[in-house]
Write a structure and sequence with these properties.
Blueprint lengths: L4 E6 L2 E6 L10 H16 L5 E6 L4 E3 L12 H19 L5 E5 L2 E3 L1 H8 L2 E5 L3 E3 L13 H9 L1 H10 L3 E2 H7 L4 E3 L4 H13 L3 H12 L8 H12 L3 H11 L12
Parallel strand pairs: 2-3, 3-5, 4-6, 5-7, 6-8, 7-10
Antiparallel strand pairs: 1-2, 8-9
Helix pairs in contact: 1-2, 2-3, 3-4, 4-5, 8-9
Bound molecules: coenzyme A (COA).
The site of coenzyme A has 17 residues, from β6.
Amino acid sequence: MYNTLLTNLTDGIFTITINRPDKLNALNKEVMTELNKVLDEVADNADIQSAIITGSDTKAFVAGADISEFKGLSIAEGKAVAKFGQETFFRIENSSKPIVACVNGFALGGGCELAMSCHFRIASDNAKFGQPEVNLGLIPGYGGTQRLVQLIGKGRALEMIMTGNMIDAATALQYGLVNHLVSQDVLIETAIALLKTISAKAPSAIAASITAANAVYSQNQNGYEVELEVFGNCFGTPNMNEGVDAFLEKRKPVFNRSRK
Ligand code: COA
């Protein structure tokens, strides 16, 4: 079904593996196009409760946008590349189903940006993060200048962006760029355990959590107002009635799959 992605759906958890190991899973046009298709699948397939994005093999998550496609682009074409990248990663960030990055090696340039667009990140001990675009006379263009500042603060972000230096997984954990650091052999199972915990909660509340948290960074919305709105809307959901009833009746809730 996909040339550059491998997918697997088990127990509602959809694992998407970027599969160009000979090019360290670099994001060429085909990968980006297929990422959009797979995001349609995540949104449309009711059997998918959550997703994992990772890279094939043990060396790289994603070593960046495919540099071979940059040669000779005009200013307008450069902007179009960034627009497509930003729009794709906004779709991940705004997905109503949780999407977790399992960073299994190099996460450089567009790879670091892809990981940052996910709802949270787990790193294996050989992971390395960096925004090395300055080495090419470029800057991050798939949201990296914004999300890196949001996640680790301006000083650390600008140091990474201006030096192009990589940080290791322990530093990424210390910076708060990743939530967990584990050995590579348990990377996916760590994400699965967390996603199973999340899947047991009300999907409508999970979607509302993502909407409210994303509003922190919105230029045209007040996050507190968004929180108030989505909190209020929870009172109109069958899942909220079920959750409260179950608590009061001292039983486990049985939630429906609706995300609204
Ligand atoms: N775009 C296109 N091809 C890439 C790539 C990228 N971002 N990153 C790696 N590759 C390719 C290499 O060209 C090489 O292909 P080849 O075997 O056909 O020559 C293959 O992947 C393996 O990479 P290689 O550089 O030989 O591995 P390494 O272990 O020596 O170095 C890196 C690993 C990650 C340090 C190095 O590949 C690198 O610096 N990549 C570019 C990172 C980058 O600048 N990303 C931001 C892009 S905007």
